């Protein structure tokens, strides 16, 4: 993490962007494991598009063009979410006709479930409290769409944990819990946009698990 000095000689720590970059590229790699009938175009196309868009996103961040960086980031997240919904719809539509063999179907459902976690982790990371660039400007995370435990008063004290800010792993953990428990567990949701995204994520996760269960019952 890079440390910079702001007003009143207070130092802040800039959050690294590479975990989010790796998560986005991982979605593209997971799409290589999907049969082409379940992907929008060749299964390598999404990875190529994401890699091509990620480069100007990184450059704009390095140059301090935060509006451009944010716009490109939203386009990236929207693109992979649309691809995820497209693939899941095709997966469900092909279930009654048994167009895919059982192993390919189960592998595809597992890959899409993981993609669901990564996609929404990037959404939460990108949008919460104005995004990573805005969070970098603060010395401590006290407001946002999610109420993390570190933002609450510590046991035996009326003060919150000073100097703490969420990183990508925190949003990844939140997305993982939403896909497994269909709820935010230990992180209450405060904003309406976050509640809406979580409902979409839970619905996608439930649909994917339903595909796995249906196939398992069919095998039995």
Strand and helix map with partners:
Elements: E1 2-5, E2 11-14, H1 18-31, H2 45-62, H3 66-93, H4 102-127, H5 132-136, H6 168-181, H7 192-219
Antiparallel strand pairs: 1-2
What does this entry look like structurally?
With 220 residues, the chain is mainly alpha-helical. It has one domain (2-219). It has 7 helices and 2 strands. It has helices spanning 18-31, 45-62, 66-93, 102-127, 132-136, 168-181, 192-219; strands spanning 2-5, 11-14. The chain has a two-stranded antiparallel sheet. The radius of gyration is 19 Å and the shape is globular. The N and C termini lie far apart (51 Å).
Distance between the termini: 51 Å
- Overall domain count: 1
What is the average per-residue confidence, as pLDDT, rounded to a whole number? Answer: 83
Largest sheet: 2 strands, antiparallel
- How many DSSP helices? 7
Describe the global form. Answer: globular
**Which spans have pLDDT < 50 for at least 5 consecutive residues?**
2-9
Determine Rg (CA atoms, Å). Answer: 19 Å
Order of helices and strands: EEHHHHHHH
Order of the strands making up the biggest sheet: 1-2
Helical content class: 55-70%
Computed structural class: mainly alpha
Beta-strand segment tally:
2
Strand content: under 5%
């Amino acid at each position: 993490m890079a440390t910079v000095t702001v007003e009143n000689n207070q130092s802040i720590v800039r959050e690294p962007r590479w975990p989010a970059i790796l998560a986005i590229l991982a979605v593209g790699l997971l799409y290589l494991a999907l049969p082409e009938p379940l992907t929008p175009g060749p299964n390598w196309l999404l990875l190529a598009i994401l890699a091509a868009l990620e480069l100007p996103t990184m450059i704009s961040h390095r140059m301090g063009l935060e509006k451009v960086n944010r716009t490109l980031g939203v386009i990236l997240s929207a693109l992979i979410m649309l691809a995820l919904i497209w693939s899941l719809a095709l997966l469900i539509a092909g279930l009654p006709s048994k167009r895919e063999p059982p192993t390919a179907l189960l592998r595809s459902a597992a890959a899409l479930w993981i993609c669901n976690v990564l996609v929404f982790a990037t959404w939460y990371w990108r949008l919460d409290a104005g995004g990573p660039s805005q969070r970098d400007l603060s010395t401590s995370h006290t407001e946002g769409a999610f109420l993390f435990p570190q933002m609450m008063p510590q046991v035996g004290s009326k003060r919150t944990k000073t100097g703490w800010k969420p990183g990508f792993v925190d949003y990844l953990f939140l997305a993982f819990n939403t896909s497994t428990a269909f709820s935010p567990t230990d992180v209450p949701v405060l904003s309406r946009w976050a509640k809406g995204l979580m409902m979409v994520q839970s619905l996608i996760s439930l649909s994917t698990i339903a595909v796995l269960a249906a196939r398992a019952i069919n095998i039995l």
